[in-house]
Amino acid sequence: xxxxxxxxxxxxxxxxxxxxxxxxxxxxxxxxxxxxxxxxxxxxxxxxxxxxxxxxxxxxxxxxxxxxxxxxxxxxxxxxxxxxxxxxxxxxxxxxxxxxxxxxxxxxxxxxxxxxxxxxxxxxxxxxxxxxxxxxxxxxxxxxxxxxxxxxxxxxxxxxxxxxxxxxxxxxxxxxxxxxxxxxxxxxxxxxxxxxxxxxxxxxxxx
Length: 207
Prior knowledge:
Elements: H1 3-27, H2 49-72, H3 79-98, H4 110-139, H5 147-166, H6 174-206
Helix pairs in contact: 1-2, 1-6, 2-3, 2-6, 3-4, 4-5, 5-6
C-alpha cells in the first residue's frame, strides 16, 4: 500500500464512522427521533459520545483526505482555494464534535455558540469547496467521470442548506432535512475517496 492509498482509505473511513456512530446512538435511545431531532442533540443523550467520536474522526480524516486530493488532481483555476476550504471544512467538523450543542429551551452557552457557528461554517463551506474543484475535476481525465455527480452534489448542498434554514429545530422534519444535508456531503467524500483509492492502485501497478 502506498501513501496515496492510505490517504484515500482515510477519506473513505470518515463518513462510515460518522454514520455508524449516529445510527448506533440513535437506535439506543428510544426517545430520540432521526426525523425530528437534530444530529447535534444526539450528543446530549446517554451514549451520544459515539456520535461525538464520529464527528471527530470524520473531521480528522477529511483533513487527511484533502492532502490526497492535493497530490492527485489536476490543478486548474480555484483548485488551491477548494483544497484550503476542504481543510477548513474538516477543522470545522472537528469543532462540531469537540463542542456540544445546547439543549432546546435553555440559555445559550459559549460551548453551544461555538458548536452552532462551526456547524453553519461547515455546511456553508462544503458547496463552495466542491464548486472550486469542479474545473479541475472536469479537465482531469482521471476525475472527469465525477464531474456531473459533483455538480449535482453542489446543487443539492445549496438546496438542502436553504431547506435546513427554513425548518426550525422545533419543527417535525428538521432532523431529516439536516441528515439529508450531511449525507449529501459525506457521500461525495466517500465516492471521491473510493475514486482516489482506485487511482492509487493503478499507480501502484504501473510502478
